[in-house]
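Supplementary notes for students who missed Thursday's class. We covered one full example, reproduced here. Read the sequence, then the structure, then the short commentary at the end.
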Amino acid sequence: MTRRSTGVDDTERLAAHLARALRPGDSVWLHGELGAGKTAFVRGAARALGIAGAVTSPTYTVGNRYRGSGPDVSHLDLYRSTGMTDEEWGDLEPYFDEAVAFVEWPDAGARILPAPRVVVHIEFVPPDARLITVSSDDRALLNALAAACP
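Structure (token representation):
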């Protein structure tokens, strides 16, 4: 499913609709260039999952875990990783326990990370829009998302 976003509000709204279909244990991989809107997407999903506080990029901390009124939300950023060892996986594994996990730049850990339920690609569309493609083997999830975001 592909949708055009004309701003942060559009991106967050699409993510919020997706979040309604997510549950603890789900992993969402996010692809896109720097500044494409990956963190905005996570912020929209996190709010829909009950996170009231600020959701910020974990580029320098690798991971953030948020607790709110719904399931925990983990936000990982592997931009600075070039690969992942078993020891590094051991450090990240708790982020996936009983949480909905969003992983930016997942390629560095693709060999070892849990398989994603959803993959999101965000592309720049000049001058200031984005093209957001959501993929999943779960057809019901994609159909529900498409119905919510015509």
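Commentary. Residues 8-19 form the longest helix (12 residues). The beta strands are 2-5, 27-32, 63-66, 72-77, 99-104, 118-125, 129-135. If anything here is unclear, bring it to office hours.
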